[in-house]
Amino acid sequence: MPAGFRGSYADHVIELGIKRALRNKTQKEKKLAGKIEREFSNDAELFQERLKAARELRKWSQGELAGKATMPPSSIAHFESGSRKPSFDTLRRLANALEVTTDYLLGRVDDPTLAQAADPLFRDVSKLTGNDRQLAKDFLKMLSERNK
After folding, report:
1. How far is it, in rounded angstroms, from Cα 72 to Cα 66?
2. pTM confidence score
3. Contact 47/7 with Cβ under 8 angstroms?
4. Which of 31, 62, 85, 93 could bond 69 through an S-S bridge, CB–CB 3.0 to 4.6 Å?
């Protein structure tokens, strides 16, 4: 990998492939390579935006998110600025800490919420009595309105 390259190995391979395509291919192939590069860039920008939005939704600083995801605060700053991209393991830890799906962070879905079965708030709901369920519902509604 070239000195100073800060992305993942996969990013490096994609970058090399695009450069080769632009250097050695026909105009049509160059156009396709340019389109792939733009889409790849847009996906990276979307990740940056979604990570920051999810962090701000939780009202956490970069340091607080880093602590919950067990990584250095500078990593969060790099991911949000786009100077680095997370590994699969890091992406999973970020999603778990933020309680959003990896699909949301990657831009594959627009809804940041976890499926109810995976959300820690909903795991034990089926064990509650009807009255306790209503209490929990009212309490969550009150908390939600307090943060508006």
Report:
1. 6
2. 0.56
3. no
4. 93
| 75 plus 145 within the same structural domain | no
Structure token pair of residue 90:
């890091």
Sign for the pseudo-dihedral over CA of 59, 62, 39, 101: negative
pLDDT-derived band at 36 (thresholds 50, 70, 90) equals low
For residues 126 and 136, give the distance between their C-alpha atoms in angstroms, rounded to a whole number: 12
Looking at the structure, do residues 75 and 137 belong to the same domain, yes or no? no
Among 95, 120, 97, which Cα is nearest to 109's? 95
Model confidence pLDDT, tens digit, residues 60-89: 999 999 999 999 999 999 999 989 989 999
Which pLDDT does position 143 carry in this prediction? 85
Number of domains observed in the structure of the chain: 2
Whether residue 139 is contained in a domain is answered as yes
CA–CA separation, 107 and 101 (whole Å):
10
pLDDT value at residue 22 = 56
